Amino acid sequence: MIKKLNLLVIKSFIGPLIVTFFVALFVLLMQFLWLYIDDLVGKGLSVWVIAELLFYASAHLVPMALPLAVLLSSIMTFGNMGEYYELTAIKAAGISLQRIMTPLIVICAGIAGFAFFFANNILPKADLKFYTLLYDVKQQHPTLDIREGIFNGNLEGFSIKIGDKHSSKTMMYDFMIYDHKSQPGNKIVTVADSGTIKVTDNMRFTIIELFSGVRYEESEEEEKVNSKRTFPHQKEEFERQTIVIPINFDFTKSDESLFKHNYQMLNIEQLSTVIDSLQNKSNYRHSVFYDNLIRTKILKNEVKISNREDSSRFAKKDSILKNLEYQNLPVKTNIDSIYNSYSLENKYQVINSAIEYCEQTHAEIVRTKEDLFQRKKYRAKHQIAVHQKITYALACLIFFFIGAPLGAIIRKGGFGLPIVVSVLFFLIYYVVTMSTVKFVKEGVWSPWLGVWFASYLLIPVGGFLTYKATTDSSIFNSETYIENIKKFFKKKKK
To answer: Rounded CA gap, 384 and 382, in Å?
Structure first.
């Protein structure tokens, strides 16, 4: 009987899991298209290039789609079983909810393991191809889109502006074309009353037909002896003129090795090596700066004791004397008495020099501090990538322990209420993660706190819901809360 029960639960879970995974992946992919639609449309990209980009984008979104699919499918599975009283019948046979959940816990643990393997071994390679292809798509020249009153420079060597378009959008009016493909500046200008712009079927040439216009060309004469340089121009009127402009829509792919060192293209082992290297470089930068500061700023010159007023350099007593003692230098010198022995003019020079020197030192400290902070932020991105490979995998288990008891409590299957609840929990997880990760990037929080904060928040929720579902508590029953409120006010009156 137990084996049949396990098979029943597994079959009830696998079907919704597959469906919800592809639904979640599709929704996330639509979000990607919404963000990058301007980079894809109007660039003459082939169907295969767009399909390849969407394939790698889908692989990039798998770690996010898996937890959402687990959450939604677990709510649907246990919601359907509760709605049709299957859970009631199973519990009546003496089988607890934890026993019903056991085979699915094993499956979700396997899904979490696959999610980690995918994020650590497959995703870096997919991301390398995805970001390389996305970069090439962004660099692709767009097709010609002429708007009224705005110069368009998408055709190499030409700038085109029109004043108005006909309702059919085939005829355009008030043309102004600057031809600067072979000469510096805008020395060839064509103005026409009307015209059309068409692209050949093979997407190789743009043909511009102009009507009733004038072409101006400015030339520059060579400078003659004892004479000024003149700038004559030619004027050519025409009734009809055809301009053929070659265009290049050939899509070329960049070398993937240019992007392979990015933190998103590395696995945990590689990330750990890079993190250690970045930490060592930051420590070395800090050490070198500190040594240079002591040697060239605080103790710039060797201290020499003599009977004259230049027996010591001027600085703050406490810090300087400690450094002098550290270097075994004589320090029994009264700096105030030496300063007072100077003339008024020398005192003025000493003070100005000290102020200028302090400003230079402060500026160098500020620059070094900013440099170390940027190094820390860059190192934090690598640390975030390591932790996210683990947290996204662990989220599959966390969401199962939220979805399964929640479905058993609400007892509603299908795509109605489960979708609402799933999206709500996923949005909480996603928004909290994005917010706390920013704190890590800015150096406010550690990765163990920022990246894991959403998990710390939802693990108690999953434990609470599992406990309530096990004890058959009706936490979503409004009558229970109304009765408790009534009892509370009755006690207050007494």
So the answer is: 5
The confidence score (pLDDT) of residue 42 equals 61
Which residue intervals of 41-122 are DSSP H helices? 47-83, 86-92, 97-117
SS3 173: strand
Q: Decide: 174 and 193 in contact? Cβ < 8 Å.
A: yes
Q: How far apart are the C-alpha atoms of 35 and 32, rounded to whole Å? A: 5
8-state DSSP, 476: T
**C-alpha distances out from residue 80 to 89, 383, 416, Å:** 13, 41, 12
Residue of 467, 475, 473, 461 whose CA lies nearest to 402 = 461
Q: Which pLDDT score, from 0 to 100, does residue 146 have?
A: 73
* Tokens standing for residue 111: 């899904």
**Residue environment code for 448-487, b if the CB has 16+ CB neighbours within 10 A, otherwise e:** eebbbbbbeebbeebeebbebbeeeeeeeeeeeeeeeeee
Determine whether 401 is exposed, middle or buried from the number of CB atoms within 10 Å of its CB (0-12, 13-18, 19+). buried
* 188 token code pair: 């060839």
First to last CA, the chain: 54
C-alpha–C-alpha distance, residues 131 and 34, integer Å: 17
Q: What predicted TM-score, i.e. pTM, was given to this entire model?
A: 0.68
pLDDT at 21: 92
Q: Which stretches within 293-343 are classed as H helix?
A: 317-326, 335-340
CA–CA dist 24, 193 (Å, integer): 54
Are the beta carbons of 100 and 428 closer than 8 angstroms?
no
The whole-angstrom separation of Cα 317 and Cα 309 is 16
Whole-number Cα distances in Å, 380 to 289, 295, 310, 446, 451: 22, 32, 49, 9, 11
In degrees and rounded to multiples of 5, residue 238 shows phi and psi of -145, 155
To which residue do tokens 């995703």 refer?
123
Average pLDDT over residues 338-344: 76
- Tell which residue, 143, 139, 241, has the closest CA to residue 190: 241
Residue type, 40: L
491 C-beta neighbours (distance < 10 Å), count: 8
Question: For the chain, what are the domain ranges?
Answer: 2-140+382-493, 158-246
Dihedral sign of CA atoms 297, 298, 299, 303 in order: positive
Q: CB–CB of 62/25 below 8 Å?
A: yes
Enumerate residues 6+ apart whose C-beta is below 8 A from 331: 321, 324, 325
| AA identity, residue 109 | A
